[in-house]
Amino acid sequence: EPEVTQTPSHQVTQMGQEVILRCVPISNHLYFYWYRQILGQKVEFLVSFYNNEISEKSEIFDDQFSVERPDGSNFTLKIRSTKLEDSAMYFCASSQQGVMNTEAFFGQGTRLTVV
Amino acid sequence: AQSVTQLGSHVSVSEGALVLLRCNYSSSVPPYLFWYVQYPNQGLQLLLKYTTGATLVKGINGFEAEFKKSETSFHLTKPSAHMSDAAEYFCAVRSGYSTLTFGKGTMLLVSP
């Protein structure tokens, strides 16, 4: 069964460092997403990506964040200068169409710990 | 703005008992509602969704949910809990063409 895969499963980084979280969406999907969950809080939407550009983003997704689909298979989230409050579980997801029409499939998540 | 409230961060039931996980939503547009489940060390998996039509929605693993507009609720139920149902459950509402707003999640604990 096709699935969304994320690497690494756990990343520890020092405050101020750049991190790149990687995702391989399901191959025939067109919409890609990043969500995050800070421990004990809600799963929060960060950004959606369609046709090689950002289609929607939340107010969390500020200038320190960026997304890229560098090679037609990977979908990455870059955090330029990490802060302690960026520590969270980051989920990648993909869907064939927007979420009302087709199911969004989520990866297992990358736990980011900023120290 | 859309929002979701899940009552109870943890719900404990005995195997064979009724499962009821509560979800209330707020939406400025006709709501599209979802329940996702997360098993340990796995991603979020769609259990069921309501978009339009029948208000009682059946999902996988024997779960169902009923959309009640008057109560702004979308509670998840299962008549008889199994040990394998132990997981975290997330309610979500459409908040954009391609985005979801999630609740905080409810951890379901099932005891023998």
Summarize this, please?
The complex is a heterodimer of chains A (115) and B (112). Chain A is mainly β and 115 residues long. Chain A contains no helices and eleven strands.
Largest sheet report of chain A: 7 strands, mixed
How does the major sheet of chain B shape up? Answer: 6 strands, mixed
- DSSP summary: helix tally of chain A: 0
Mean of residue pLDDT of chain B? 92
Determine the oligomeric state from the structure: heterodimer
The first-to-last residue Cα distance of chain B is 41 Å
What does the secondary structure layout of this molecule look like, with pairings?
The complex is a heterodimer of chains A (115) and B (112).
Chain A: E1 5-7, E2 10-13, E3 19-24, E4 31-37, E5 43-50, E6 53-57, E7 65-68, E8 75-79, E9 88-95, E10 105-106, E11 110-114
Parallel strand pairs in A: 2-11
Antiparallel strand pairs in A: 1-3, 3-8, 4-5, 4-9, 5-6, 7-8, 9-10, 9-11
Chain B: E1 3-7, E2 10-14, E3 19-26, E4 33-38, E5 44-50, E6 56-58, E7 64-68, E8 73-78, E9 87-94, E10 100-102, E11 106-111
Parallel strand pairs in B: 2-11
Antiparallel strand pairs in B: 1-3, 3-8, 4-5, 4-9, 6-7, 7-8, 9-10, 9-11
Report on this structure.
- The complex is a heterodimer of chains A (115) and B (112).
- With 115 residues, chain A is an all-beta fold.
- Chain A has no helices and eleven strands.
- In chain A, 0% of the residues lie in helices and 50% in strands.
- In chain A, the strands form two sheets. In chain A, strands 2, 4, 5, 6, 9, 10 and 11 form a seven-stranded mixed beta sheet that branches.
- Chain A starts with a strand and ends with a strand.
- In chain B, strands 2, 4, 5, 9, 10 and 11 form a six-stranded mixed beta sheet that branches. In chain B, strands 1-3-8-7-6 form a five-stranded antiparallel beta sheet, with no helix packed on it.
- In chain B, strand 9 and strand 10 (100-102) form a beta hairpin.
- The radius of gyration of chain B is 13 Å and the shape is globular.
- In chain B, 37% of the residues are buried.
- The mean pLDDT of chain B is 92.
- The A-B interface holds A 3-4, 31, 33, 35, 40-45, 48, 50, 55-56, 58, 91, 93, 95, 98-100, 103-109 and B 4, 32, 34, 36, 41-46, 49, 51, 90, 92, 94-105.
